[in-house]
Amino acid sequence: MDYKIYLYIFFSMLSAFALSGINFEKIIRKNRMWETRVLVLILSLILGYLLTQFVSEFL
Questions:
Q1: Residue ranges making up the domain that contains 7
Q2: In 10 A of CB 11, how many CB atoms?
Q3: How many domains does the chain contain in total?
Q4: What's the chain's Rg over C-alpha atoms?
Q5: What tens digit of pLDDT does each residue of 23-53 get?
Q6: Around 40, how many Cα atoms within 13 Å sit in the side-chain half-sphere?
């Protein structure tokens, strides 16, 4: 169970890094940087959770 915490952190950071390559300015209205950052945070946590569940099934 202890390894899952490290996997959550690792995959959340990895997904945040991957999401930083997407240009959200075309999707979000202009001058909405705070909402864009919250969206990236939520998406990275969701992707981190899903990736952790996927990898932990193999371990």
A1: 2-58
A2: 21
A3: 1
A4: 13
A5: 887 888 888 788 888 989 999 999 999 999 9
A6: 21
